[in-house]
Amino acid sequence: MDPAGLRVVEVFSSLQGEGLRLGQKQVFVRLAGCNLACDYCDQPEARAASAGSVWPLKKLQAEIKRLQAERRHAAVSWTGGEPLLQLAGLMAMMRWAKSHGLANYLETNGTLVGSFKKAAPLCDTVAADIKLPSSAGRETWSEHLEFLRVAPEKTFVKVVLTVRTTDAEWRQVIRLLAEASPDIPLVLQPATAVRGTEPIEPRRALRFLRQARGYLKDVRLIPQWHPLWGVR
Fold first, then answer.
1. Fewer CB atoms inside 10 A, N or C side of the chain?
2. pLDDT tens, residue by residue, 6-64
């Protein structure tokens, strides 16, 4: 039986502003709750499990249908917060989206391996964040390694880089990807300067890019574009 609903912060139409699907028209469903607290988070209001309100699945389906009728979208971006914290409702909605011709784009912090294993077959794109201790406040390397070992081919990794990112952290990112799978695309994303967050210096970001390309097959430097476009 499907769950009664999902705790939703917001639903809106926009262009994907990050990663390998940059510029793709998507319906964004922001879910409440996160198991981490990264200092560069651009959606801190979505961290609390009590954020937003509970939407019955039929209400959420109706809103996605309405947005899709207004303008054609390629995918639904399930974002947060951490969507995998609401696994049952998320999977029910992913099944529904696929049955209505929409791809599923999952944004996840890459630490909830058990839940991800269940949701992965329903995902068409997985944007997995590797969280650095300098921003997340704790090490999550072992969780990330386990996550990437079970990630499907449609997964890419994103690493947000700030002025506090260390050379040692970056070497660990490269080791992590090389051990899990050097074929997984890696996106370096300089942090957007919001709420006091300072992005990495461009020269250091380019050096990190060159270092990673010495070990991994597909490495790209892609900043967040939606703040520059003036969209959510």
1. N
2. 999 999 999 999 999 999 999 999 999 998 777 777 677 778 888 999 999 999 999 99
